[in-house]
Amino acid sequence: MMFDKKTLITTVAIAAFIVTGCAVSGSTYSEEEIGLRKTNLYSENTTNPDKTSYGKVAAGESKVIARAFENAPPMIPHDVEGMLPITRDNNSCLACHDPMVAEAVKATPTPKSHMASFRPLTTLDANGQIVKEGKVVDNTADIKTALHKRDGVSMERFNCSACHAPQSNNEPLVKNEFAPEFRSANGKSQSNLLDTLNEGVQ
Ligand code: HEC
Ligand code: HEC
To answer: pLDDT tens across 52-84, in order?
Structure first.
């Protein structure tokens, strides 16, 4: 690698700053200590992680958890005992979250985005060119997100727990400093993905 004189001086200065900085603050860690856990990194047999402890509050009595960021999939705030696994013939989540029944049981209805498929209809034309949503495109071309409405929840969304997960009550190992910004007043408790889907797409 080639350095001009100015870059070299800056690099050396930064390196010196880092080295003295560490020495002065005394924040060096031994190899045994560099993990997030409080025990020796090499002591696998005596280290027990915190137990996973999901909430036990029944559906209908739990408190919804604020969304982590705009249009984040909400966490499941209630016990899911007896509701999993979701199978082809049995999706108990929909027994309450299907928009047809959700209001009656005070569950959040599955949003409009779940009643749609976003997979573009893709074919090859006679010349072997890729046709997406009726338009000839390059393989890597960006197209406006396809939207094909479905009568009920799309099969692409059938496995709810692939995206919605319960929250375990454990102390985080590192404090989360992330502060989400919601552009709409109710963004903390509601999604609007279908209205914002094509933002930023040319
Ligand atoms: C017996 C009815 C019932 C069943 C079954 C059920 N839920 Fe719920 N769910 C609710 C209710 C009611 C709420 C609102 C919080 C409350 O009152 O406990 C809720 C809240 C939620 C939320 C949070 C929504 C928000 O606005 O933040 C998610 C996510 C969720 N449920 C996912 C699921 C999944 C996934 C399943 C299947 C594994 C499931 N639920 C099964 C009734 C149910
Ligand atoms: C591929 C991931 C994925 C799957 C699978 C999925 N969801 Fe979602 N869900 C999301 C995301 C992302 C959001 C927030 C953005 C949006 O509304 O699409 C969401 C939002 C929700 C909301 C909040 C609606 C609102 O108005 O705020 C509910 C309730 C919900 N999903 C229930 C379900 C249920 C029930 C299933 C299974 C039938 C399911 N989801 C399957 C990703 C998923």
So the answer is: 999 999 999 999 999 999 999 999 999 999 999
For residue 86, the ligand 1 atom closest to its alpha carbon is 38
pTM of the model: 0.84
How much distance in Å is there from the Cα of 98 to the middle of ligand 1?
Answer: 10
Ligand 2 pocket check for 76: Cβ under 6 Å: no
- DSSP type of residue 183: S
Distance of CA 137 to the CA centre of its chain: 30
Helix, strand or coil, per DSSP, at residue 193 = helix
- Tell me, using a 6 A CB cutoff, whether residue 96 lines ligand 2: no
Residue nearest to ligand 2 atom 20, measured at CA: 73
Q: Give long-range contacts, CB 8 A cutoff, 24+ apart: 167-175.
A: 167/54, 167/55, 167/65, 167/75, 167/76, 167/77, 168/52, 168/53, 168/54, 169/53, 169/54, 169/55, 170/50, 170/52, 170/53, 171/50, 173/36, 173/37, 174/36
Q: How far is the CA of 73 from the centre of ligand 2 (A)?
A: 6
CA distance 188 to 199: 19
- How do residues 91-150 score in pLDDT, each as one tens digit? 999 999 999 999 999 999 999 999 999 999 999 999 999 999 999 998 877 777 889 999
